[in-house]
Amino acid sequence: MIRVITADDHSLVRAGVRYIMEKSPDIRVVAEVDSGANLLAELKKTPCDVVLLDVMMPGKDAITLISEIKIRYPALRVLIITSLPEEENALRLLNAGAFGYYNKEAGLAEIVNAVRLVHSGKKFISPRLAQFLAQRSLSEDEALAHELLSDREYQIFLLCAQGKTLTQIGEALCLSIKTVSTYRSRIAVKTGLKNTSQITAYAIKNKLI
Which class does domain 2-135 fall in? Predict the structure, then answer.
């Protein structure tokens, strides 16, 4: 039996996932949560094999959550479910440790197969994402500004785009304000975005938040 936890802040999505999973005799939804904090709390008490993780939930960003899950529960598989275009975040999330990237826009018909695939230890990648990864050969000069950032810089970049202060970012990532400020300076140098307003506008334009 494949035990699944659905982490999504939209109740209709959670209900849709449960409806489809209940038709499969080998899969059972053992819990549903609506935030990253609730997911980490649920994992402490509810054993599961696969987490369906929405990237746009309140609280910690998906990369941070995946990193924490990977450390605490190395055998657990994370399947990203999102309505964002694959090209925006998929590569970073897969590099962070996600086992697959499922786009909600495609409907939920194939999500059962995706769960089975990642549970077996294989990656689930949509044809669209596979094509993007195959064709991805941008040089740094051609890359978008956020693609030049390291994973930690990108985490802080997203939190800045959400309007978080240096103190709030430090608390979320367990970093000192000085360290966050250093990362913020590196982000400014690499992207040319000098303040929070510019970062937020850029993130919205490129569908990062």
Answer: alpha beta
Among residues 24, 105, 99, which one has the least CA distance to residue 66?
Answer: 99
For residue 109 the two structure tokens come to 């018909």
Q: What is the pLDDT of residues 139-194, one digit of tens each?
A: 444 567 787 788 888 889 989 998 999 999 988 888 899 999 998 998 988 888 88
CATH 1.10.20.10, domain 145-205, yes or no: no
- Would you say the pTM of this structure is higher than 0.70? no
Could you give the CA distance from residue 197 to residue 195 in angstroms, rounded to a whole number?
Answer: 6
Q: How far is residue 8's CA from residue 56's CA, in Å, rounded to a whole number?
A: 8
> What is the full DSSP assignment across 37-56?
HHHHHHHHHS--SEEEEETT
SS3 category, 204: helix
98 and 122 in contact (C-beta within 8 Å)?
no
Instruction: Name 167's Cβ contacts closer than 8 Å, sequence gap at least 6.
Output: 177
